[in-house]
Design a protein that fits this description.
By secondary structure, the protein is an all-alpha fold. It has helices at about 1-5, 15-45, 50-60, 60-75, 80-95, 105-125, 130-170, 175-190, 195-200, 205-225, 230-240, 250-255, 260-275, 295-310, 320-345.
Length: about 350
């Protein structure tokens, strides 16, 4: 069995499923649903029907895009990879409903779990018969769609319940949950896992989504500013608009460099929830909550939520206070707080010159 699994490149490990597959799923989600939301919002604001239609096409393909990305991360052979498009569509569609038939938030989580299983079974039978062109797609699709019918609605119910609990708890205790959500999601963004995929799986929105945005922005903008003396403008852009994950190697060498950005997120989180009622209600289903300033997706998602709330009547208009909150939570406070805390950490010797240098 070990020889068979090795020959088929089937590796049961937390890294392959919890980091590689999860990260790839987030990229697939980004290239479909998230891009679609951005393009659609631009089309609505600029009155360009073509962009609105394009955004709709992108969003409709989120399930197949996630599943194919997962298959790619698992190094699935071509027939398995292409068959996962059907699996992803079914898992996302059925996972986006609850057992009662209501709308659910479990689409991405269902795709992650079911696409992994379908891909591994497809890899197991790949090129084992003389009619591989039939057997491999049939096994991959039948297992994937069958599992989707059996468990995807339950996954949708479970994910929705967890997401609703987090949102309810944040409304009930905005200060403490603002700190908790902001710090945890911000840390997840910097770790080699996908905070966007986690937020999407839970459908994290509302006040909890706003706290998540605050935490992610604190990490990205914070590290960009904190490491400016070592990395200058290139580091500012690569971390502020790219990812704070670039600092993971340095964090392993000196975990104390993580203190300024993490403390900043613990401050901006409750400010977002308690002072500004800062919410993430973008139509993409929570993925933008875990993106921060990566490609400006977090702020764009907040704006898309405003537009959607105005269109549905949940919000009267976009106000100057809304823009002030976004500027403070996403950019100004993360930069200032992390810089000040960083100065203190440098002064007491916890952070030394060169500790944040990127190769």
């Amino acid at each position: 069995m070990k020889d068979f699994l090795k020959r088929k490149n089937i590796v049961f490990s937390a890294r392959r499923y919890g980091i590689d597959a999860l990260g790839a799923m987030a990229q697939g989600l980004f290239c479909s649903l998230l891009i679609g939301t951005i393009v659609k919002t631009l089309g609505q604001q600029l009155n360009l029907p073509f962009l609105v239609q394009t955004g709709g096409y992108c969003s409709a393909m989120s399930g197949p895009a996630m599943a194919v990305a997962i298959g790619y991360a698992l190094q699935a052979p071509p027939l398995v990879l292409f068959s996962l498009a059907t699996v992803g569509y079914a898992a996302n569609a059925l996972g986006s409903t609850t057992l009662s038939g209501a709308a659910g938030a479990g689409g991405p989580l269902a795709v992650l779990l079911i696409a992994i299983i379908a891909a591994e079974f497809g890899k197991a039978v790949s090129k084992e018969t003389k009619v591989d062109i039939l057997v491999t797609p049939l096994v991959t699709i039948l297992i994937g769609v069958g599992l989707s019918a059996l468990i995807a609605p339950a996954i949708g119910t479970a994910a929705s319940s967890v997401g609703e609990f987090v949102e309810w708890a944040t409304i009930l205790q905005p200060f403490w949950m603002g700190i908790l959500v902001s710090v945890i999601v911000g840390i997840a963004l910097t770790l080699p896992i996908s905070s966007a995929a986690i937020c999407a799986a839970l459908g994290l929105s509302g006040l909890a989504g706003g706290a998540a945005v605050a935490g992610c922005c604190a990490q990205m903008v914070g590290f960009a500013v904190l490491s400016f003396r070592e990395n200058r403008w290139g580091g500012l852009v690569s971390q502020g608009l790219g990812t704070s994950m670039l600092q993971m190697g340095n964090i392993v060498k000196n975990p104390r460099i993580w203190i300024p950005a993490t403390l900043a997120s613990a401050i901006t989180g409750p400010i977002a929830t308690c002072l500004f009622n800062f919410q993430m209600n973008d139509p993409s289903g929570g993925v933008a909550s875990g993106m921060g300033t990566c490609g400006m997706v977090g702020p764009i998602g907040v704006y898309a939520g405003w537009v959607n709330d105005v269109a549905t009547g949940a919000k009267a208009a976009i106000t100057g206070m809304d823009w002030l909150a976004m500027a403070l939570i996403c950019f100004i406070l993360p930069a200032v707080l992390t810089w000040v805390i960083g100065l203190f950490c440098r002064k007491i010797g916890w952070i030394k010159d060169g500790d944040l240098k990127l190769d």
